[in-house]
Structure formats: structure tokens, C-alpha cells
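Q: Make up one entry.
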Amino acid sequence: MNAPTHRYLSLGAGVQSSTVLLLAARGEIPAFDAAIFANTGWEPTGVYAHLRRLEQLAAGSGIPVVRVAAGDIRRDALDPAHRFASMPLFTLGPNGERGMARRQCTGEYKIKPIKVEVRRRLGYPHPTRVPAGVIAEMAIGISLDEIGRARDADVAYMRNTFPLLDLGWRRQDCLAYLTAHGLGDTPRSACIGCPFRTDSEWVRLRRDDPAGWADAVAFDAAIRHGSARANAAGQPLRGQFFLHRQRVPLDQVTLRPRGEAGTDVPGCGPWTCPHTDPPIDSAATPRREVRH
């Protein structure tokens, strides 16, 4: 007898994953056993408001939205007792070298807690081995214009699926669908202090969420000389960290938004986080980490 299929949605609460959840809730694609949202603890207020709306919508169709977390990314980064999961912060070396720190935050705060939840639901929590043939399908909200991000799962007990690719939908199709069903204001999901924000997004954060902007400015200042743990251990960064590619304090950055170009930047979903610098800067910089 074949093992039953377990079906989950990786819910980033951005445009594409919200579309997939809405399609399932309306019965236009097969339902999910659960939609799993990995909460970093540092999403903008608008994302959490939208998530509550999705929770209500999905509950009416019998799809639970489950929040999982591996901690609070902002608090952990500033905690001298906590290991720092490196963010893709912009670096400025002691001799003016420009680079970028490694990106570990997505894996630590999004992918790992989702895998923990999937294993728990399958009945084989770590370190128990998941038997061969026990598979969880993980739906990921990647649209046709982002097809290069579609990849196989890196563990045997998960099989990635891509409902939007099956439908042949692009991001604009998702936006039209959400708008038609009253969700046209779905925000982009990304941490408040995500270095991948475009200038358009920084401007909107400063204009629409003053508390979030102040939070990002304070964090930018706090991480200037490296992680709290490294500094407490007497290992300050040889150089400086910055949230913005201009590599000056965030509240001193000259923001140059290019219309609403930032609107179509993919959100930072667990398997769809951007892997390159924000696209608005024409100056290419090498990915070098200034080490402690």
C-alpha cells in the first residue's frame, strides 16, 4: 500500500504564496494539510496584518496556517549570548574594500524551522530517520517569471511542487487574481532590516511605517562593528557592516527610488529569497566577507 501523500504550502505571505493559498482555499487547486509560515519575528506590521487575514481566509476552507520560528532574528543578532546567523550585510573594509557578508539567515530562520515542522507532522522528528517512501509535498510560490528559482528539495522526505508553474502564471497574473478577490494590497514579505530592499522599498518603509524605519535605523547602527557576540568576545569586525549598499548609516543614505520598480522584487520566501544584490545599483561589487 502506498503511503498517504502529505501536502504543505511554504507560506511566505508575499504575492505568489498568498496566491497559491487563495487558489487552494477556493478549491481551484488541491487543498493543503497546512500552510507553514516561518516567522523571523521581524516582518513589517503590514505583513503580519496580511498574515492574520490569510489565516482567517484559510480557516474557512479547513487549511490551518501554522507559524513556526527558530527565534527572533533581530533580537538574536544583538544578543551577545546568541550565535549570529550572518545576514547579507554590506561590508566596508578597513582600506575601503567593498563586499557582502554571507547569507545564513534564510536557512536558519526560515528553511530549518519549516523542515522541523514537516518532520514533526510526518511523525519523525530529528534525529529519527524518515523512512524511504514517506514524502511530504511542499508547494512553493514561484511564478513563471522566476522559473530559475525552482529547484528540487535537498532532503529525501520532501518533494517540491510549483502550482503557479503548472498554471503557467506570472507575477502579474497573481496580482490580478489577488486583486479580483480583495487582496490586491498584498505586501512584499521581507524582514524590516533586509539588505535586499530597494530604495523604493526603503522610501515606502520610512513613509508608511515610521516605527519600522526607526527600528531599521537603530539596528543598522547596532551592527556597525559586527555581531554582539563577537564584540563581547573581544573580536570586533575588521571594518563595518551596513544595511544599505551605499555603506553609510541608514538615516544618512540618499535614497534614489526609481518609480515603483521595487514593487516587483521577489519577497524573501524560504526557497525564493534573492541571491544577488538589490538590482538598483549599477556598480557591481564582489561578494567578499570582511572576517573577524
The first helix runs from residue 15 to 25. The first strand starts at residue 6 and ends at 10. The beta strands are 6-10, 34-38, 65-68, 90-92, 98-100, 136-139, 158-161, 240-242. The radius of gyration is 20 Å.
